[in-house]
Amino acid sequence: MRRKLEEHPTVRQHLAKQPPSGTSRETALDSAWLRKLCLEAGADDVGFVAVDRPELDGQRHEIRELLPDAGLLISFVCRMNREPVRAAARSVANAEFYHVHDRITHVGHEIIARLEAMGIRAVNPPMGFPMEVARDGKQWVISHKPIAVAAGLGQMGIHRIVIHPKFGNFILLGTIVTNARISEESRPIDYNPCLECKLCVAACPVGAIEPDGHFNFSACYTHNYREFSGGFTNWIETIADSKNAKAYRAKVEDGETASMWQSLSFGANYKAAYCMAVCPAGEDVIGAFWNNRKQFLEDIVKPLQNKKETIYVVPGSDAEQHVVRRFPHKQVKRVSNGLRSKSVRSFLKMLPLFFQRHQAKDLNATYHFTFTGQEEAKATVVIKQQTITVTEGHTGQADFELTADSGTWIRVLGKTEHPFSAMLLRKIRTKGPLKLLTAFRKCFPS
């Protein structure tokens, strides 16, 4: 069989080819040469990180699931035009986001084509969407931000966006995973371009960024990503729960329906991203802010603050209180963000992201969770001084204990099974003051 295959024209052509010199996996690529290749392909800046770097410890397994013999990550940025991103008309900003999103995909494709022609394996995961949405827990294929930081392309600002030293936060990130090696790796820059001016704090309509650096993931996700997966799920369920068209229109304004149609047709719209719009950091960006801060506020920050718009919040959340207090001219729309844990593991992992610290103002308690059945687990949740920690196993003295069948617990979280019936059937058992359970639930409104 092998002899017969060797006589096939394709195999004969393959055997006749000599491998390109200096391109085997054992030979390190010249970093200057690779940088030039990436810039010629359309990247505005690029850096290189070996997969065994400590900064990638948290996602090395996922990277090697993507490419088993991964050795080198190429991190690159494409610059966005600033003024469209700053526009109060968010359709203008979203058009810029998606144009550069497509450019990121194109640049990654071009780089991979050139590497592949040299016999180097390479993969470019999506910049953001599409995601592995059917997967439990983390749905994005790769975490671009820590890779970009490790590659020297910037540092994270208090708004959780990578700020490039020259372009500021007006960039989108791309990553290419290869099985190559490099002659010289990139290293993180030795300062943070973030000015800690707190303009992102002032502009965020849901208070997701607080002056001390605390970030409320749930608030940001519920509003800014309203037309993405979670909000879309909530919208579909609103349609399903509506008796007729009149009942639907009582729940959803015509403008909201039109906006969902637009997102389905042209790409999901970000509702805010004001933190990015107002950020003055970066060598190319700082001038207007530094030369005339008052004018910068008038031209860029206040139009976003003063904009009359619908703000989407989870009922009883910190975001709802923030909008009512800080932006009374904006309309509050109480919704579910559509996020539901599919497993006990994801429930425990997501607790810090859903935590509403201002709802925990007077709470100081230790909770022991024990899950049985199909998914067994033990965990300790400590809520103290408006902070939360989640650890495996039972540690410390519990003020409240909850034991639950894992499947029942997930159904209760998804609101397909009532907690009281589960308690009557002993599928959920508690020990300790029930007021602590009520206080716990208040910290995670849904």
UniProtKB/TrEMBL annotation:
Keywords: Iron, Iron-sulfur, Metal-binding. Residues 185-214 form the 4Fe-4S ferredoxin-type domain. One of its GO terms (molecular function) is iron-sulfur cluster binding. Residues 1-10 have a biased composition (Basic and acidic residues). Residues 1-26 are annotated as: Disordered. Signal peptide: none annotated. InterPro entries: 4Fe4S_Fe-S-bd (IPR017896), 4Fe4S_Fe_S_CS (IPR017900), SCP2_sterol-bd_dom (IPR003033), SCP2_sterol-bd_dom_sf (IPR036527). PANTHER family: IRON-SULFUR CLUSTER-BINDING PROTEIN (PTHR42827:SF1), IRON-SULFUR CLUSTER-BINDING PROTEIN-RELATED (PTHR42827). This is 4Fe-4S ferredoxin. It comes from Paenibacillus elgii. The lineage of its organism: Bacteria, Bacillati, Bacillota, Bacilli, Bacillales.
